Amino acid sequence: MLKVNNAHSGALKRSKVPYFRLYDLRHTWATRAAMAGIDLVTLAAMLGHSRIQMVLRYAHPTEQHQADAMRKLEEFNAARQMVEIETAQRGLARVPLQ
């Protein structure tokens, strides 16, 4: 691994890209994979983790991603409420949605 790290350090110096560890890319990848919708069980397998808890150390959702997730939940709940209201207005028997 030393040769890879030396090559990485040399490439960063030559390109004048700010320093970062190769290991940091693992966090970036996990975060972007989670934001893309990959479920935690699959993500754990892809990262080689036996426990989902370890995935939580790598995936760091942004505030925007969290806000988008909340918006999706609100849209889902609003659509569900509309179905219940329409059902009630038609006088149909209420069937609980799951």
Written account of the structure:
- This protein is mainly alpha-helical and 98 residues long.
- It has 2 domains: 24-61; 62-98, no CATH class.
- 71% of the residues lie in helices and 0% in strands.
Key attributes of the depicted protein:
2 domains, mainly alpha, 98 residues, 0% strand
What does this entry show, briefly?
About 70% of the residues lie in helices and about 0% in strands. The protein is an all-alpha fold.
How many runs of DSSP E, i.e. beta strands?
0
The biggest sheet amounts to: none
User: Distance between the terminal alpha carbons, to the nearest Å?
Assistant: 51 Å
Poorly predicted segments: none
Radius of gyration: 22 Å
SSE sequence, one letter per element:
HHHHH
| Number of alpha- plus pi-helical segments | 5
Shape: elongated
Count the domains: 2
How do the helices and strands line up, and which of them pair or pack?
Elements: H1 2-15, H2 22-35, H3 40-47, H4 52-58, H5 63-89
